[in-house]
Amino acid sequence: MHRIRLRHPTRAPLLLLASVTLGACGSSGSGQRDERDAPPSAAPVVITDASGRAVRFDHPPARVLSLVPTVTQMLVELGAGDALVGRTDYDTFAVVRGLPSVGGGLRPDLERLLTLRPELVIRFEGAQDPVTGVALDERGIPHIAVQPDRIEDVRTIVRQMGQIMGRSEAADALVADLDRQLEDVRALVARAERPRVAYVLGGTPPWVAGPGTFIADLLDAAGGENVFADLDRLYGPVSLEELVTRDVTLFVVGRGTVVNPRLGDRAPVVEVSQDVESPGTGLGRAALELARLLHPDAFR
Amino acid sequence: MTRSRTTAAALILAVAAAVFIAVRFGSVALSTGDVLDALKGRGDPVKRDIVVGLRLPRALLGVLVGGGLAMAGATFQALLRNPLAEPYILGISGGAAAAAVTVLALGLVSAGSWVLPAAAFGGALLAILLVFRVASAADRSLDVRVLLLAGVVVGAFFSAMIALWFALSEASTVRNAVLWMMGSLAGADWRVVVTAAAYTLPAGIALIALARPLDLLAIGEDTATYLGANVEQVKRLAFGMASLITAAGVAMAGVIGFVGLIVPHAVRLVVGSGHRALLPLSFLAGSAFLVLADVVARLVIAPSEIPIGVVTAFAGVPLFLVLLRASLR
Lengths: 300, 329
Description:
The structure holds 2 protein chains of 2 kinds. By secondary structure, chain A is of the alpha/beta class. Chain A has 11 helices and 11 strands. Chain A has helices spanning 11-22, 69-77, 94-97, 110-115, 130-138, 151-164, 168-189, 214-221, 240-245, 262-266, 283-294, and strands at residues 45-48, 54-57, 64-66, 120-124, 143-146, 196-202, 207-209, 225-226, 235-237, 250-254, 269-272. In chain A, strands 6, 7, 8, 9, 10 and 11 form a 6-stranded mixed β-sheet that branches. In chain A, β10, α10 (262-266) and β11 (269-272) form a beta-alpha-beta unit. The radius of gyration of chain A is 22 Å and the shape is globular. Chain B is an all-alpha fold. Chain B has a single domain (2-328), classed as ABC transporter involved in vitamin B12 uptake, BtuC, CATH 1.10.3470. Chain B contains 14 helices and no strands. Chain B is globular, with a radius of gyration of 20 Å. The two termini of chain B are 22 Å apart. The model of chain B has no long low-confidence stretch (mean pLDDT 88). At the A-B interface, α1, α4, α5 and β9 of A face α3 and α7 of B.
């Protein structure tokens, strides 16, 4: 399904307007891009995104809007930060702070989004935002959906961004970097006994991280055993009884998370940084942070 | 009648002004010239898309949903002879929301953007049918007291169903469902506007045609019968049409509170309770009110939005109290 025509970035909105409001008005094939925009080495790439759509790129898009903060970070690290034309309210790091915001990453403000004239939008896959994908399709603006559930998904997204932006080598290096960091952590804690850890996201009843999540992957890499490896979904609520009767060595929570004080009677409750809840290239750092908490002896 | 004529003229102007304001202002600053160019199909394509592809359908959806809710509210208040009646009182919002949450929880919404509104519409129709069947006695007469009770109970049942889904679902599903239930015009595009119009306008015209029998019904069923109204038919038609309008509104924009309760009362305070004036004027007032409320919802924390129900309550309640106070003097 090659619905993407990067050569005519302005044509689809014209067509939409014409068909909807003005009747047959036609659209001249204006809006050709300069040939110099296409690096000579870039061959067309086809990316299958998390929603299963195949999207074709004849050359790297010059104007990119990422609605997914971890992907925004990735693009900067890949050296493609110059292509970013906007950000969300959640992207506050120095490189992108000066860019105009489109609001939240889910259901962003479409007026501002259109004004940025993106040639590629990166968005969250899933029912959380049923509006944006449809609106972009109607206007012929290419978009890639991502769903970083596991660490493996993060690797895939980095590689895909590398392919799209014509920076595959940088992407491979970034993935290799992440893998090396994870391997180093694994090696450090390989011989240690594995403590039983529950990752609690807060809420009443408390929500925990189940199997198939990047948090479970991180716990594994950091030498821990996820107490809720038997949860029937990625994240879900569990009763307080369940939490206090299971054999738990350590409760791990994100910084600032409020949990029921009873948990602290059973096992220590420790806070970790935002890295642990951000499925991006900071996962190597996150694994190290968790390992230090779970195995303080290994770092003496 | 002159009073309703003047009010009608003022409200038509208000609707036109509201739509213009809605098209003129948004999170992206455009000049009046840009907007006029866009409406004429000229100028920068992105600006045209913002005005004609985003703002105009959203304003028109506001006209249809706001007007429809106000008119349905006025009808239910007459039909149930209860000033607290509003479009959602008979379980329609509960049915729509339960169906919407069900498709969200089962992950069915990825099949297409039509799934959620279609499910909500189906759920609303199911609730309407359930309530109607319960309230229809053996002799096929419709007891409005039973109708009200059945509506409230059916609504409570659907609320429980929603709570059950919440307990069983992923956090993201719960978040989506709550967002949907708070109501929003953000899903507006031209297809949505056309669909909403296809239900709201014919049903609205049918209701206006029922104005005189509704006047009689508001006095009392016995009186209406003596005065020659086919009471059972009027009740069924009024219930059906007002429900259909509400169902279409809920399907396209979720549950938006206060419009259907407050606007008919406000209009009644100005022009009296004759339905020939009350119904069309409620439509106009509801339209202008909701379109303006949406402008506020879009602008206060742009580029993000606040729920439109917050605006309708914050603006509608004080406005209503002032009108109420004035009517007592």
